[in-house]
Amino acid sequence: MYRYDTIDKEMLADRVAEFREQCARRLSGELTEDQFKRIRLMNGLYLQLHAYMLRVAIPYGALTSSQLRKLAFIARTYDKGYGHFTTRTNLQLHWIKLKDAPDILEHLAEVGMHAIQTSGNDIRNITADPHAGANADEVDDPRIWAEALRQWSTFHPEFSFLPRKFKIALTASPKDRAATKVYDIGLRLHRNDDGELGFEVLVGGGLGRTPYLGPTIRQHLPVRHLLSYLQAILRVYNRYGRRDNIWKARIKVLVASLGAEGFAREVEAEWDTTDNALVDLPDTELARIRAGFAPRDFEKLPATSGVFEAAKKDPAFARFVRNNVKPHKIPGYAIVDVSLKKPGETPGDCSAEQMEALADLGERHSQDEIRVSYEQNLILPHVKLDDVHAVWKALDTAELATPNHGLITDIIACPGLDYCALANARAIPIAQAIALKFADPELAEKVGELGIKISGCINACGHHHVGAIGILGVDKKGEEFYQLTLGGSAEAEASLGQALGPAIAADKVADAVDHLVDAYLRERKDGERFLDTFRRTGLAPFKEAVYADAH
Amino acid sequence: MPTLIKWTGQDAQAVEDPYTWVPDENHVPRGDVIVSLQRFQSEGHRLLAEGRNVGVRIEPNEQVEDLAADLPKLSVVALAFPKFLQGQAYSSARILRERYHFEGELRAVGDILREQAGFMVRCGIDAFEVADGSSPEQWRHVVGRFRHVYQRAADGREPAFVERTSFAQGAS
To answer: Among A133, A165, A168, A239, which is least packed, fewest CB within 10 Å?
Structure first.
């Protein structure tokens, strides 16, 4: 994995020094909380309901073992012993003291980590396919381009006061594990008919109050022009994006108002006037970054493993393999999904002990790499088939072997009203109640692939619009209610969910999901996924199942 | 005269501001003035013909392209930041410097805070009507905060990817 060089490290050191000084000005009373707000927000520090929250960036979701150990140390020393992985592959620490924040940043900098641009109206943490470098169907390693973007976007002088926050996601596979259609910019790396690498550029996707799937504004952007083309997009947005209304300030509103073609014309016109050579990275720099992601020394192994096959006689291990183990591009290796969704626990939460257990496993069995996915799970990307059983046992000891990847209990949920000052309703207890209903792994597996996504408010941090079952918390005269949507997906054939009907009281949501699942199992044909059945039948049978009692 | 912080390329200095900003509803006084784009478009020729220095103030919703033909005659372009969050003028500044090669003073006016100084200097802004009482020393301190930059902008600083090439050549 790319290691920070002297320049990268000095950037972080300078940032820590800056923030230490700014915090001192706040703690001494020189700055009011209001004046400090604009500063702390650029450092990923939020004042939440109960304490400060620090959001640590995990660029393209990639961690080394020493980085994960450092996060465990910080969670134990400065927080309550755990952290929360988010849908932006960041780690949130929810119980931080302001006076500790500079020290935490200094600890992070020691392992090449930071909280730069994890808040503010700037270019946020760059996310990418968490299977990068391990899956067989990718045309290139998207982390190379994500790292190029990380550097380019860091302290960008022109784009640090955009109309609103700006999120970029990349994939290099036909299977979209980075939800590129629902971000401000989605980049899909592919080869054209001449075999040349290029990006399909999608702009103006997003969830929130007005959800859009991003339209494509360019089919094949030669990879070397990534930065100059993005500069043109960002410049058009910075100049013409709305700033009068926070709900209309994201780039999706500008793209929708100009139309995708109109917006593309503006971008191309801006790009034509740019001296690309001054903006785009030279080949030497691209080669340097690429070398940072060069494949490790994979052993030459047989495609199958006797140890692995024999271990599958244990039905619990076999279940884990069915759901959480994915094929690797190198024979004899596998990708292991580590679920942070044990039924009854908070989705995405991970204790310091669990982080350390994973760091050890990553070091011993996964070439020192651990990944974070937008589904709020972790991944050991390079595990030898021979080792999968041992890894599973160690995961089990750390309560990290829940065999539910992609199943109904693998729920995405934002922190909601338990932590967040913006939320209207809690998300975590709803996720817990649903997961407990389907806690029986056999039942969960029988239901099959079904993504439930829960947001505690219209900002949609829990991606509810793209859940096969989406759940949105709303406030009705001081009470928590939940609106259900069905049929959403963030995968390659992305779609936005359709509203099911009137909002449901908090204590009825898990039952409603139960009814939806019953209806699905009744209607299901030939091993269809929930999404397929819904797309075939439409809302009617599901509506009937949930609201029949109300008639 | 109110003071202005000027960035010389290495240093920040407090200077007396010779210009008077003239809102549209006021009469234009004698001396060097900064006027709105609208006033400049109707009265600019006359004001310049009077032999004084003239500057134009661009609001966030106005386009610097409208000023392109007149730039050689202007000694100042003032870019308005009514609130620090309104960042359109960062783009305007870079376009003025990098596309039109404007060499006069680029002045930031409005909600101008120390925390933005580094970004503004990088975009080619070299004069500041500061709103937070910052001293030139404080201004210099924040502008010089980062030893490296990752991207080219209007300040001519060598980005990291160029620095790395020189390291590599130095090492070989």
So the answer is: A165
Return the HEC string of A477-533.
Answer: CCEEEEEEEECCECCCCCECCEECCCCEEHHHHHHHHHHHHHHHHHHCCCCCCHHHH
- Residue A184 and residue A159 in contact, taking contact as beta carbons nearer than 8 Å: no
What's the pLDDT band for B172 if we cut at 50, 70, 90? very low
Instruction: Dihedral sign for Cα B80, B84, B85, B91, please.
Output: positive
Read off the DSSP letter of residue A176.
-
The number of angstroms, rounded, from the C-alpha of A392 to the middle of its chain's C-alpha atoms is: 24
Q: How do residues A218-252 score in pLDDT, each as one tens digit?
A: 999 999 999 999 999 999 999 999 999 999 999 99
Q: Which residues of B touch A10 (CB under 8 A)?
A: 147-148
* DSSP-assigned states of every residue in A411-467: -EE--GGGT-SS-SS-SHHHHHHHHHHT-SHHHHHHH-B--EEEESSTT-TT-GGGS
Mean pLDDT of chain A: 95
Helix axes A6-27, A101-110, angle to 10 degrees: 170
* SS3 at position B24: coil
Radius of gyration of chain A (CA): 23
d(CA A437, CA A508): 12
User: Chain B: residue nearest A281 by CA?
Assistant: B161
Residue in B88, B119, B161 closest to A160 by CB: B119
Per-residue HEC secondary structure of A212-264 comes to: ECCCEEEEEEEHHHHHHHHHHHHHHHHHHCCCCCHHHCCHHHHHHHHCHHHHH
Residues found in chain B: 172
Report yes or no: B11 and B137 within 8 Å, Cβ to Cβ.
Answer: no
Of A152, A238, A288, the CB nearest to B164: A288
Encoded amino acid at A216, one letter: T
Structure tokens at A356: 């350390």
Q: In whole angstroms, what is the distance from residue B44 CA to residue B38 CA? A: 9
**Interhelix angle for A385-397 vs A315-324, to 10°?**
100
Q: End-to-end distance of chain B based on CA atoms, in angstroms? A: 56
Q: Give just the sign of the alpha carbon dihedral B102, B107, B112, B113.
A: positive
DSSP state, A265? H
Helix (H, G, I), strand (E, B) or coil at B151: coil
Locus of tokens 């790396």: A189
- CA–CA separation, A16 and A59 (whole Å): 18
Count CB atoms within 10 A of the CB of residue A446: 13
**B158 strand-pairing partners:** none
Instruction: Please report the residues numbered 450 through 469 in chain A whose beta carbons come closer than 8 angstroms to any beta carbon of chain B.
Output: none
ipTM of the complex: 0.96
> How far off is chain B from A206, nearest CA to CA, in Å?
22
Phi, psi dihedral angles at A297 (to 5 degrees): -80, 90
Q: What are the chain B neighbours of A160 within 8 Å (beta carbons)?
A: 87, 90, 119
Q: Which site among A3, A239, A243, A286 would you substitute to test the B interface, given the most B Cβ atoms closer than 10 Å to its Cβ?
A: A239
The stretch A473-492 carries a mean pLDDT of 93
CA A63, CA A522: separation in Å to the nearest integer?
Answer: 43
Shortest distance between the Cα of A170 and any Cα of chain B, in A, equals 20
A27 contacts: CB under 8 Å, gap ≥ 6: A98, A99
Burial class (CB in 10 A: 0-12, 13-18, 19+), A168: buried
Amino acid identity for residue A6 in this structure? T
For residues A448-462, average pLDDT: 94
